[in-house]
Amino acid sequence: MKQTNISVFVPHIGCPHRCTFCDQRTISGETKAPSAADVRNVLNEQLPVLRERGMTAEIAFFGGSFTGIDRDYMKSLLEAARDAVNNAPDVYTGIRCSTRPDFIDEEILDILCGCGMTAVELGAQSMNNDVLRLNERGHSAEDVERAAELIKRRGLSLGLQMMTGLYGDKQEYCIDTARRFVELKADTVRIYPTVILGGTRLGELYKRGEYTTFTFDETVELCAELLTLFDAAGIPVIRLGLHASRDVEEKMLGGVYHPALREIVESRIFFNEMKSRMEQLGSHRFTVYTDSSNISRIVGQKRANKEKLHRLGFDFTIKQENGTRLRIENAL
Q1: Which of 128, 232, 288, 294 has the smallest set of CB atoms within 10 Å of its CB?
Q2: Is the pTM higher than 0.85?
């Protein structure tokens, strides 16, 4: 049975900081904070749709800093979600939220667990304190470690979110952040390359020429390394890049955004592996065996992988082999 999220955005309330990159309303497309009645209506409307499609869903409170909003308001939203889980456990399988690392403590976790929370995602963004300070996050890497430990101790699923290409960032900082996420035993990860939006502090720095982020190609190569690192640790990356959004496209000044970013990154992973194996085999013509689900990524967007390998002197044909990720032989 396919799993999805029913996302409820609580835009930019409850957060005492305005980070350099932040414009939650543009990112989420939401400008109005939902009421408990709104949540109930959405969940009731989606219930027959999900059942008809044979799908289950987590109820997810995203945007802003969920555990920093008014307690009574937060409890009202959670109670609406808990009622949906209790009334339709065959469809609504749990509740998750995203929040700041410094907005997690035992009292907050008592409330969350009492209302049926199953997963908490922390907007860590970086585990480098200089990067956190330059981007006015208002928390430290140590806050992330403390909050992660509290969440895991309660038996909740731990999600960690990171950004690449922030003000003052370096690629080695991003790799170190990923390694520390592994050490913290994250259950899921989201990776968000920085998108520079108008009306933000980063936007002003960018327009004045005081800040540049990683290029698109640098970001693709970096994210390929990050995906490979998390895959080796058995940690699923449940999101790579912002969701496709007209608002983001209209307000974007720079940075890295593409609606098919994950597929491009996965294709780069295949390219790197194929190049390495072909060089080791020491020939020029190859047969690549793979499952049909991988063919588009092996060929690359607009045949980019095939053409790049051709320019390097390598040509290949693809043969479908069910269940095979990648196997390469010299062509006869």
Answers
A1: 232
A2: yes
